[in-house]
Amino acid sequence: MPDSDANSAVPVDHPAFMLHAALDRLQADHPAIIELGELFAANGSELALVGGPVRDALLDRDLTDLDFATSAMPDETQRLLAQWGDAHWDIGKEFGTIGAARHARGGRPGITVEVTTYRSDVYDPSSRKPQVAFGDNLDGDLSRRDFTVNAMAVRLPELTFVDPYGGLTDLAAKVLRTPVVPEQSFDDDPLRMMRAARFVSQLGFGIEPVTAAALVEMADRIGIVSAERVRDELVKLLLGRHASRGLRILVESGLADAVLPELPALQLEVDEHHHHKDVYEHTLTVVDQAIDLETGADGPVPGPDLILRLAALLHDIGKPATRRFEPGGGVSFHHHEIVGAKLTTKRMRALRFDKDTIKQVARLVELHLRFHGYGDGEWTDSAVRRYVTDAGPLLERLHRLTRADCTTRNKRRAARLSAAYDDLEQRIADLAAREELAAIRPDLSGEQIMEILDVKPGPVVGEAYKFLLDLRLNEGPADYETARSRLLEWWQAQA
């Protein structure tokens, strides 16, 4: 049975209850937007809260940045926002959008708003950027939005609810549907297909059948959208609580074939003897398990963590290229982590990720199998030091990726792997307490190396530094005299 309000027999997820509660909250918690509506009304202009903020208010989610639509042209909007806010900006003016911020006052937090002239986004088949056309009424503006749950509005200042496409009913039913025929909607802005997958991830909603069929029919149209916009939607999808469900939509619709082909490529045919698991299903499970291993804000990997989630998604993409059927019916994927790291770099570059994010994700993919050499628990202190040093600042994420990568249904094997990793983490903690593992450096600095060897800066100093670092990793810390003696021995051997 659905929950009910303590003073009513109406379920809390009934559309009427959702609307009543949302309007009450808007009036009580956001008086500044009522004031903004009064300002526009005095100017003879319409103003309405639209899209995501209306949806979130109905879902009783926190509202941060607020989006509005108006009949006013951008210049007029800018003038009005300058009166209302403490700061305003026109960076989106060519698209009809003016932003403003009002600082905290009267005990209420500050808010940021964006006000956009009624408009539509339309793609030319030969262009990767939307063309902007201004509209003249709210219903028309709402018809051009991606889904009915985002095509609702609240007129201000009177708080009149506007829902011409049944968004409230769909919201209560947790379903995604386009306001107009889906083929028209996706043709106008193909990125809306990616947004469908993103909202499945963020909200846990389903996609109604006609809209889902249009995704499949029009998936190729996503190719007209710039890599940067596709990347942004993929990031939002991955940061959602139901990321694996959103990823399934990308694959089942065919969108992934264009934007992330490495994912559907993991749907390898499982051999009749099941010598290897379904890599695609395994990957989605790893994503889910990695999300579950993220920490709170005070932990080492606060969720949602994009680096960890990308690494979980991409960790096995080297398997299709490295699969080999061995004599006797076995299947191997030798060095798939190395191949996967290279493919990760290539795909993330194509999606225009920044260099630092690419570097971190590729490194985690490269390292994700390193632990499996520890299965017998017989690593030397040197091997543990190298594990920590190679992971560097990614160590906590590597811990979680490695644990998430265990998806075996064999409970005994899973327990052994978990215990082995528990042991490795304890070894790391014990060594860290003795040796400050996170800051491992050679026992002599570059200046000391040059002084002892009587050399100037150059390649030989780097070679000596590397020798001392290997010595430190293999044997642990040494005092100055011991390090100096070993350095001189090495130097004599170079002659």
TrEMBL record:
Residues 279-401 form the HD domain. GO terms for molecular function: ATP binding; metal ion binding; nucleotidyltransferase activity; RNA binding. Pfam families: HD, PolyA_pol, PolyA_pol_RNAbd. Its cofactor is Mg(2+). Signal peptide: none annotated. The keyword Magnesium applies. Transmembrane segments: none annotated. InterPro entries: HD/PDEase_dom, HD_domain, HDIG_dom, NT_sf, PolA_pol_head_dom, PolyA_RNA-bd, tRNA_adenylyltransferase, tRNA_CCA-adding_enzyme. GO terms for biological process: RNA repair; tRNA processing. Keywords: ATP-binding, Magnesium, Metal-binding, Nucleotide-binding, Nucleotidyltransferase, RNA repair, RNA-binding, Transferase, tRNA processing. SMART domains: HDc. This is Poly(A) polymerase.
